[in-house]
Amino acid sequence: MHHRTPSITILGSGTFFTTSTVSASSFVVDTAQARILVDAGPGTLVKLAKAGIQWSTLDHIFITHFHADHTADLFSLFMDYRLTDLFEPGKLKKFPIIHGPPGMDDFMLRMSKLLEMETYEGWGKIEVREYVEDNNALDLGDLVITAYPVSHEIFGVQARAYALRIKIGDTLVAISGDTVDCPGVRDACRNTDLFLCDASFPKGMVNKAHMNTHDIGNIATECSTKEVLLYHLYPQYTDVDLVSEVREKYDGPVRKVRDLEVIQLKQ
Ligand SMILES: [Zn+2]
Ligand SMILES: [Zn+2]
């Protein structure tokens, strides 16, 4: 059994545009009883190593949606397990469960075929579970995670995208995933202590893929969240004061997160 205080480690605060300091969206949520990876964009494996978190200690992996900036390292992470199990049988004491949108199992299967590494079908040590509409609260002992479908359309395709609401003791955290302002993200965010949100765009930018800063401020105010943390940051808007723009609609604390920062949560 682990003896960790609850925390969130930001592995990646960005999106596709990797720099020496910013990689794509990925988080580790730690509680006393569980270690969870949320999303696995490019850079996740490097950032796990830099954070001193061994991939073999993960209990669960949650994928918000299939876009590559959230999944590009997932199959590589799978291969770490698959090959360790092959090279050093019995060394791995546990295998994570991958939770994801409907189609998650097919994603892994098709990825294995596309990559010409047919290592997935029939192995079965890493279980895959798909989010179920209306009954998807997952109780993991000292935390409960609920996935809410959200709206995230890009290049004419609606992604099967989810926001996550995570209850750790008395602390409520929402992770928006990629989404516009929609009922699902508001349900995930309602009365949270911390709202980690997709802050892709400055105010005034409206599309079917992402929130802008005023959307975030409105959601945070109307859903009574206590603190807002911005992630999924594009380098194109580094010079825009996104934080001040959120504050035009929201009175609480707001800031951007940085890769490798650790956010301590109340016990
Ligand atoms: Zn996306
Ligand atoms: Zn994204």
Helix-strand blueprint:
Blueprint: E1 7-12, E2 26-30, E3 35-38, H1 44-51, E4 60-62, H2 68-71, H3 74-87, E5 97-100, H4 104-114, E6 128-130, E7 138-139, E8 143-150, E9 153-154, E10 157-158, E11 161-168, E12 171-175, H5 183-189, E13 194-198, H6 213-222, E14 228-231, H7 242-247, E15 254-256, E16 262-264
Parallel strand pairs: 3-4, 4-5, 5-6, 12-13, 13-14, 14-15
Antiparallel strand pairs: 1-2, 1-16, 2-3, 7-8, 8-11, 9-10, 11-12
The chain binds zinc ion (2 copies).
One zinc ion (ZN) binds next to helix 2.
Q: Can you walk through the features of this model?
A:
By secondary structure, this protein is of the alpha/beta class. The protein has one domain: Metallo-beta-lactamase, Chain A (4-Layer Sandwich). About 20% of the residues lie in helices and about 25% in strands. The chain has 7 helices and 16 strands. It is globular, with a radius of gyration of 18 Å. The site of one zinc ion has 7 residues, from α2.
In short:
The protein is of the alpha/beta class and 267 residues long. The chain contains seven helices and 16 strands. Helix content is 22%, strand content 25%.
Largest β-sheet summary: 7 strands, mixed
How many β strands by DSSP? 16
Helix-strand makeup class:
alpha/beta
* CATH topology group: Metallo-beta-lactamase, Chain A
Question: What is the CATH architecture annotation?
Answer: 4-Layer Sandwich
Give the number of helices: 7
β-strand percent reads 25-35%
Gap between N and C termini? 17 Å
As for the number of domains, it is 1
Helix content: 10-25%
Distinct ligands: zinc ion
CATH homologous superfamily label:
Ribonuclease Z/Hydroxyacylglutathione hydrolase-like
Mean pLDDT: 95
Question: Which radius of gyration do the C-alpha atoms yield?
Answer: 18 Å
Approximate shape: globular
Widest sheet, order of strands: 6-5-4-3-2-1-16
| CATH first level | Alpha Beta
Order of helices and strands: EEEHEHHEHEEEEEEEHEHEHEE
Sequence stretches where pLDDT stays below 50 over 5 or more residues: none
